[in-house]
Amino acid sequence: MRSTPQRPGKAQPAKKAAAKKGALPAAKAAVKKSAAPAKSPSPAKKRAAKAAPVKKAHPGSGTTAKASSRKRAGVAVPPVVPPPLRESRGGLACKWQQSMLVHGEGDLYGKPYRLLPWHREFNWRWFEVDPNSEMGPWWWLEGLVGAERGAVKTELLGALAMTEMAGPAQLRNCRSTPLVHIAAAALKQSGEMFRQVQIMAGGAKGREVTTAPLAGLFEVLDTTISFLDGRPGRIERVAAEAGTNEGGKTTLFLADELAEWTGRKADVFDVLNAATTKRIEPGRTIGISMAGRMKGAVPFDDDDPLLWKLYVRGLDEAKRSDSRYLFDWRTAPVVDWEDPASLEAALRKMRGADVTWSVKVRLREIMTRKIRRQQAQRLYLCQWPDRTMGGWLSESPGIWAENVAEDAIPEDGSDVVVGVDMALHSDHVGLIVAGRLSDGRVGWYPRSWVPDTSGRIDHADVFATIAGPLATRWKIKRVVYDPRFFELPARFLEDQGFTVVEFPQSPERLIPADQMLHQLVLDHQVVHPDDPALNDHAGNAAWTESERGRYLSKRKSGIAGKMDLIRAGSMATWELLAGDNTNHGAATAKAAPPNDGQFFRPAQRLNL
Asked: Which of 75, 258, 330, 405 could connect to 70 by a Cys-Cys bridge, CB 3.0–4.6 Å?
């Protein structure tokens, strides 16, 4: 039967402690002799072990939201209904880990290892048996675990590594030579993870852990753990940033904090994961992480982050009864960030709530804004932030929202610059009024136009807005514009007495302007009202690399939206702050006084 979950560090009853003490010599001998099969439980116990887990909630069902079949960016909801539990050796895994392992670094250093409830649930799932042995002894070949910060994820991986290396034969994934790779994105992070395993194995020379039941059985080095008696098998530490690892016939690959496996590091994951297929009976892979910084597409694109692709794949495979991909993602439901009760309820649904971390402490951090909401969403609730990966502000999540200000709009009557990013047909027009505020920051006022039912943009209304309400409210120093589509209205504005400035969309002009805007946003020196269209455009902008530097453009993904307001804002801010020192060249030619009939509204792109 499944034992009752205990909190870490809780003392064992005297009878259990005595039983454990008497079992250690036999267990050590079993490890030294490749662990003969343990005595099978009685049929009654087998039936109880099979039945009990079925009543448990599935580890990945920590949300009440229904699974969605919609295919758009960010719409990804973990499944609610768990697959039925097959015959499992999870009970044996739990018993062996708690009798033969100790806790690693932390408050419980060297004390007997105690599984958290979700650790037990994962063991029962992970050690489900393949009834037909079509792909080896186990049903699940891959797994993805999502858990919040402080849920004791790394120590679980350490326990699974030691189970594969030295556990009973019924729990190992090989007949003779275990080869375990434990990996993280960075060398430091992989070192922290490996130290947990070193302690469980008895510690390195000079740093022995005498309380570890497995002490003295292994040669524990800085990057490898192997049997002291020379038998084949080892645990290796790998850092993704160090490059690829082509060697080995891996029986178990454990990857920590997949949110950090970006760029070339994702290639290392693919190589190590592929190494599990070098044997007739394949090895297995477990990835574990908090949510990533940004979402990708659904279905995922090839250039989306590794974790997002694994996550979306898990959502898809969870719908299949024949899936060999264990998707165990615990996330909180949607919360009201202004409601403490809603936040507290969400926090209590997470894996380590009031067991390994305090709900009250985290609730206070969120409500007092000690931690940014976007960070709390990812780290504490294991939810994906709202914006897509690759955005121009992805290195500073939440910074755009931090620049919202009630006094962002320039004061009436002040000097301003108007930036216009114009379109012709079935597109979007963005306009930003940029002006200096009393404290030196740059404030923005956004306006935007969408096509009418015929797909046309009313250029006359854009001109009339600048020459009318905007000119009445502020002193317009200059109107800066993309000359591709705004040349005619610009000439009319010039005839009305406005100073108009062309801003060609070449890398030479865009790079300094966009770099300036980026730095101003990071320094909280550009503020804006909380305008939905502007916020959406900010989320759609991304960096494009060129030989001269990087500049802003739409994201490459096919789901990318508009970013015209950011382009208009970048031009206006550059002209406001640097325009007086810029050589604008000759003025544009004069034009006849405008009337609405003079505006040409083409149905396709016009080359002027």
From this structure: 75
- Decide: 63 and 78 in contact? Cβ < 8 Å: yes
**What Rg, from alpha-carbon coordinates, does the chain have?**
30
If we measure between CA atoms, which residue out of 385, 389, 380 comes closest to residue 146? 380
Cα–Cα distance measured from residue 173 to residue 337, given in angstroms and rounded to the nearest whole number: 45
3-class secondary structure, 580: helix
CA angle 234, 237, 241 (to 5 degrees): 150
**Pair 507, 546: CB distance under 8 Å:** yes
Name the residue type at position 239. A
| DSSP tag of 406 | T
pTM to 2 decimal places: 0.58
Distance CA 161, CA 565 (A): 51
Strand pairing class (429-436; 442-449):
antiparallel
3-state secondary structure of 305: coil
Tokens of 534: 């502007």
φ and ψ of 367, to 5 deg: -70, -30
Beta partners for residue 406, in sequence order:
none
Measured CA to CA, the distance from residue 452 to residue 449 in angstroms comes to 9
Contact by Cβ (8 Å): 142, 324: yes
Task: Give the span between the Cα atoms of 483 and 473, in whole angstroms.
Answer: 25
Q: Are 183 and 154 in contact (CB under 8 A)?
A: no
Report pLDDT digits (tens) over 36-85: 444 444 444 444 444 444 333 333 333 333 333 333 334 445 544 566 77
According to DSSP, residue 259 is labeled G
| Cis amide linkage into residue 299, ω under 30° from 0 | yes
Q: What does the block give as tokens for 80?
A: 């609610």
- In one-letter notation, the amino acid at residue 394 is S
Q: How far is the C-alpha of 385 from the C-alpha of 97, rounded, in Å?
A: 35
How many C-beta neighbours within 10 Å does residue 494 have? 17
- Sheet containing 179-184: order of strands: 218-220, 224-227, 234-239, 179-184, 252-256, 284-289, 142-146, 325-329
Distance CA 349, CA 339 (A): 16
Give the pLDDT of residue 242: 60
Instruction: Look over the chain and give the mean of its residue pLDDT values, rounded to a whole number.
Output: 81
- DSSP states of 146-208: E--TTS-HHHHHHHHHHHHHHS-GGG-S-SS--EEEEEESSHHHHHHHHHHHHHHTT--TTS-
Q: Which residue has the tokens 């556990």?
A: 167
